[in-house]
Amino acid sequence: MNGMHGIIFSYEKRNNLRELGEIRSASSIPFGGRYRAVDFALSNLVNAGVTDVGVVLHGRYQSLLDHLGTGKDWDLSRKRGGLKILPPFAYEQKKGDAAFRGKMEALVGVRSYLQEIRQDYVVMMEGDLVVNLPLSDIYEEHLRSGADITMVCGADSFEMENGTYFEFDGGGRITDVLYNLHTPRGYRGLEVYLLSTRLLLELVDECAAHDLFSWRRDVLQAKKDTLKLRSYVWGGFAAQIRSVKEYYDRSMQLLDPAIRAELFCAERPIRAKGADKSSAYISPSGSCVNSLVSDGCCIEGTVENSILFPGVVVEQGARVRNCILFKETAVRRSAELAHIIADKNVEILPDRTLIGHSSYPLVVAKRCRV
Amino acid sequence: MKKECVAMLLAGGQGSRLYVLTGEMAKPAVPFGGKYRIIDFPLSNCCNSGIDTVGVLTQYRPLELNSYIGSGQPWDLDGSSGGVHILPPYMDSKGGTWYKGTANAIYQNIGFIDLYDPEYVVVLSGDHIYKMDYHKMVAHHKETGAECTISVMEVPWAEAPRFGIMSVDERGMITEFAEKPKEPKSNLASMGIYVFSWQTLRRYLNEDEANPNSENDFGKNVIPAMLRDGQPMAAYRFSGYWKDVGTLESLWDANMDMLSPESGLDLLDESWPIYARSINVPSAYLGKHASVSHSAFNRGSDIEGTVENSVLSSGTRIAEGARISYSVLLPGATVESGAVVEYAILGENCHIGANCRVGGAPENLSPEVWGLSVLAPGCSLEAGRVVPPNVMLDRNGEEVTR
Fold it and tell me: Do the beta carbons of residue A18 and residue A363 sit within 8 Å?
């Protein structure tokens, strides 16, 4: 029944991820204990029966390539179709390694790939979106409504780095597309777009011919009166990881059981790479409350309100509060951490104290020893 | 495709001494240590030892085991040649039989092994928890020029009568083998792990099959026959952690050993990883009132109550006010508020209603009447039910005698 093809954008865009974004694109940021941001987009697609997915890359993508591998963790290692990694093969010859100016330019760079798409419809998503969308329902809604482009919006107008906002009429037809807003209004765009492959190719060729590069300005704004643009409002959890503050706040929301139940619902499981680590362990001296704890963690100290990725060690006497500790972080004896995001393989030496604040969580860069 | 070495994993045992835990699955498929199944240990050892061709001999309720092994990808056993093969008994033009014994199981698969024309065959058992480099054992086999090498470990003298006991000469060659001797002459016990030179084993398997009085068993028939004929047979000493988890008590013991790396079973040590098939559920959540001490737990779990000295598998849920101690919870077990579970093994997807009491501490009872309490997979206890120590329940909640 399914005629959808997935395209995930994972090139560098304006963001405020500080140290977290220095070594990777937002798509491969670890999230929620055992996931990377891109696991969500991939799982959303696979759970809707999508078998072919292209990932459009540009810049700092080693971490993402390493994570994606052949795509087998998402059942996307296939004889026909499956996962296709799309570095800017046609683009770099002309423009060198300059970043894409916009989505349309990114698509022009992979024009020959678009030509080969076997499905009649395309879903475009961002790799930094953490959500569990019922894409099959959205697809059916798209067919039923006769829209040219269906765009998924959150039921809020949260302020975001580089956010897109939509206004629409009572019937769901988009009346305005806004970005660079000082004070956000309308509905927050999740930047999930569903359209026919044929229309996408037409738009790509038209933009290429006029050296237009912006999806928002040159397609959505320019054509809002000639194309039928419709909204699909998603009222559930939807995080777009574009700043440290947003990353931190959205991660901490996962400590709420209702949000976990929705984001990780059993009907649409989020698939991730396995960690090949043993069970987590808490010693007689350890204590851990209101926290997510992943495989292979070893807790001998005190942990509260935190998210621990696989293989985190918290030694005796150490205190960890309101922290997000990535894979293999070690907190040595009697160290104290609060409101810290520690990237992979960070080591906090004995008796050190690092205190951030919920309004400004401190980030410790990958492999640093403090 | 020629291979130097092929491993044959005996996984057909019924596991009757695990009683209700193996009611619906073969013993090697029984969950262990929170995130593993028993068979993950020999399969991971093969992978880490560089053995890429493994035959898994199954016959007793194999569905769960077959689906768990799947393509063999979690253990890197899905290469373009070799890989993991499930080998049930089969019919040919002359008929066919169930696997009559361990040696007969290999005999019936001579054709499979011949496909790879190996120099050596490693015979493994599907019910042991240990980390071992089979490559070193094969190297020992080559160095000593043996036709058969048996891995052995020292056991306390008092326990020696429970094992197959080897006597060895000063070069470590086996001079005598006694199956469960009343008066052991040595304390070197066979671990049930063998390396054979294939052409020699092939000959002995054919001879053994031709003997109508044979029980077609390695320990009882094939090994003694080789020894009688004066074949060079080497003992390979192993000194790490090893446990046969064929009984409920030893399965529980091995789970408890995992909590204390001093036991020798250190699963957090990543130099010799044990692989398992991964499941797609989020990290474990420990609630605002959770109190967890000296315990292991896994993804997909939701722990709000008190847990001490226990091993919790994936997807377990412990409600606030519930208390678990000295117990092993298999995947998906749930315990409601006010319930107390002590010295118990709860099978997969067991449900313990509010204020139930399952099991009890040995301190309060005489040793003759105390024992672990064990619930079959899928068993659901209504609120307030009491299951005394040493009691076993089937999936309908009815008592089963051991």
Answer: yes
Per-residue pLDDT tens digits for A267-325: 999 999 887 899 999 999 999 999 999 999 999 999 999 999 999 999 999 999 999 99
The encoded tokens of residue B264 equal: 């020798």
Once rounded to an integer, what is the mean pLDDT over residues A139-165?
93
Its ipTM equals: 0.92
B33: nearest CA in chain A?
Answer: A279
For residue A152, give the DSSP letter.
E
Token match 């446990």: residue?
B243
CB atoms near residue B88 (< 10 Å):
14
**Nearest CA-CA distance, residue A233 and chain B, Å:** 26
DSSP-derived 3-state class of residue A368: coil
Please report the pLDDT score of residue B261 as a whole number: 85
Closest alpha carbon to A233 in A164, A156, A175, A178: A156
| Per-residue tokens: A198 | 């044929």
Chain B nearest C-alpha distance from A285 (Å): 7
**Which residues in chain B touch residue A32, judged by CB atoms under 8 angstroms apart?**
282-283
- The conformation of residue A218, written as its DSSP 8-state character, comes to I
Which token pair is B277? 């098939």
Q: How many other CB atoms are found less than 10 A from the CB of residue A10?
A: 29
Which of B33, B280, B289 has the CB atom closest to A272's CB atom? B280
Choose the closest CB to A282 out of B280, B282, B293.
B293
What values do phi and psi take at B33, rounded to 5?
65, 25
Q: Which of B35, B276, B286 sits opposite A293 (nearest CB)?
A: B286
Distances (CA, A) of A190 to A231, A283, B12, B60: 11, 42, 53, 52
For the whole model, what pTM was predicted?
A: 0.93
Q: Find the mean pLDDT for residues B65-81.
A: 92
* Residue B206 C-alpha from the chain's centroid: 28
Angle in degrees, CA B54, B58, B63, rounded to 5 = 110
**pLDDT, tens only, B191-242:** 999 999 999 999 999 999 999 999 999 999 999 999 999 999 999 999 999 9
